[in-house]
Amino acid sequence: MDPVIPLADLQPIYSVAEVDRALEDGAARRNEGLKSWYDRMRVLGGSRFIIKPSTAAAVDALYEASPNFSEVIDDLRKYLALAVAGNEAVQFTPLLLLGEPGLGKTYFAKRLAQVLSTGFEFVSMSSLTAGWVLTGASAQWHNARPGKVAQTLIEGDYANPVLVLDEVDKAGGDARYDPMGALYGLLEPDTASHFKDEFIDVDMDASHIWIATANDESPIPEPILNRMNVYAIDRPDAEGSRKIALAVYHEILEAHRWPFPPEPSEAVIERLVSVPPRDMRKLLLDAFGTAQLAGRDHLVAEDLDARKLCGRRARVGF
Question: Mean pLDDT throughout 68-74?
Answer without folding.
Answer: 97
